Each structure stands twice: as structure tokens, then as C-alpha cells.
């Protein structure tokens, strides 16, 4: 389901973020060193190929809440934005740091004049952020920065699991009925 606000579509999709061929830039839930990892980062690195890690490592380490950009290599997108989300219960304040990930990624995509961006559910995997809380932070952070965006026209959440997709759909309906 898509929702339109400030001429920008917010869209939830269920699927594989590495296969979003209609999106300019995807977001990687990265580790601090920007190396191949598990979860979303592992899938993105495997799909993009070894050149991604070679391009990303010199940009690290990054701190929680920060974002950097690389080309997408073998992925069908133009770029990948790498964000380091907070480890739930360790990196404080979690909500502010997670919100920074979304804001910084959107600012970078807008600076690069991208029209579409796809996010995973940052920090909800091995970093332990509860999906319900993370979805609220993600959408509220995005809503707050929408008026500043100039080129972005579509913001996707690409969610692999049924439960994550359902939770994000419910949160989007709650914010924009």
C-alpha cells in the first residue's frame, strides 16, 4: 500500500532489497567497518560483489546514526547508502540514533538527486531493536524530514518477513489513514 504526503509516496513492499530494480538507491543496515556481514548487509554485499567491500572499507569506521554512500556495483541500483543503526540496549539514546540513520540516508540520497530510496528495517535483526518500536521511529523520522527533500519522490520499506511487513503496514496506516 502506498501513501502520498508532500508529493512523496511512502510504500511498503515485501521482498528482497537486493532485487529492487525500480529504485535509485538502497540502504544497507551496515556494520561499523562497512564489511560484509550477516543479515541485510551480507545479502547486499553478496549481490553487489566484492568491489562493494573494497569501496566501502575506506569510508569506515562509521558511528551509530551515520551514513555513507557507495556505488551499487552489480546491483540494479545506482547507489547504496550504508547506515549503522544502534544496538538496542547498548547505544543510547536508541530512538535518536535510529532516527538519524533515516534522516542521514534521505539527506544523502537527496544530495545525489535520487528520486527513490529503499530501506530495510534498520537495527531490527541482530542489533535487537523491537520491530514495532523501530517502525514508529523510522516513519516519524521520515515524516519530519519530508518537507526538506527536493528530489526524492518515493520512499520504500522493503521487508523480508511477513511479520515485519505487517507491522510496517500497520504503522503507516496509523500515521496516514
TrEMBL record:
<protein>
    <submittedName>
        <fullName>Macro domain-containing protein</fullName>
    </submittedName>
</protein>
<dbReference type="InterPro" id="IPR043472">
    <property type="entry name" value="Macro_dom-like"/>
</dbReference>
<dbReference type="Pfam" id="PF01661">
    <property type="entry name" value="Macro"/>
</dbReference>
<feature type="domain" description="Macro">
    <location>
        <begin position="1"/>
        <end position="176"/>
    </location>
</feature>
<dbReference type="InterPro" id="IPR002589">
    <property type="entry name" value="Macro_dom"/>
</dbReference>
